[in-house]
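Bug: token stream looks shifted between consecutive jobs. Job 1:
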Amino acid sequence: MSGAISEVEQEELLEKLEVFKIKGRDKHGRKILRIIGKFFPARLVSVDVLKKYLEERIFPKMGRKPFSVLYVHTGVHRSENFPGIAALRSIYEAIPVNVTENLQAVYFIHPGLQARLFLATFGRFLFSAGLYGKLRYVSRLDYLWEHVKRNEVDIPDFVSDHDEDLEYRPMMDYGLESDHARVYGAPSPVSTYSMRCIS
């Protein structure tokens, strides 16, 4: 998986891509750890390097105070930037107890249908009930601003663009319409009319 580049280069890549960034506060005054899933180079960074990076560069900055995680799932594809289920479990188990105890909320931005189904089915088995209970799905950025101060967190443009796409094509939220680019105004392959009215 990561034989092409050294451990130091892998750590430098994580730093350069800003996959993990501590910046801003939520409306409860807690620090925010922002994670951009699309930026994660899953095919280049090993699980061991990732754990070391988190232990040395991220967790110490969190301190011993409550914090929130803002995970941006927009643009994550299993073949490119998803580390795998076993890797997620291994990373979760390596998180120190004081860090998990201080974690107050995980805001999961733009969860797709697959992510929701996966977490609903296996989330309770992979993660503790405490962590699973802190998970908050956020389908639109407008809903995020109810919990996080708008100007406190940097949100990449592609996230806002996807949010705008969802406004025009709401069936994407439910996996009923492809998220491939197309021309707005063209007929949707999925009917948006409810079948409940037809008798």
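Job 2, same session, no restart:
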Amino acid sequence: MFYFFILLLVASAQAKFYTDCGSKLASVQNVGVSGCAEDATTCILKRNTNVTISIDFTPTVSISSVETEAGEKQAYKATLPVLKSYPKVTVDVKWELKNDAGDDLVCVLIPAHIK
């Protein structure tokens, strides 16, 4: 019982608020969402505000459109509005970065609650 409890604590300490949903051509090192703690289970997105998402990843292939070599760490950042008209719901936000051929470089699911 004691070992199980320690294992559970270690697993909880290493938990991330996002899950990889099929990053085929890159490895994701980190995902950040403004206002969302790294140990959160759900990100709270407040309506009528802006949210910034950042993703650190390393592609396993070269990307010609942005002149990136395989193995070269990249930092992606985008800011988007959480509109007042959005309903107050709990959702999984799916964020994908694709290459020129439409293949997933990065795919992450972020559990969120719009309030």
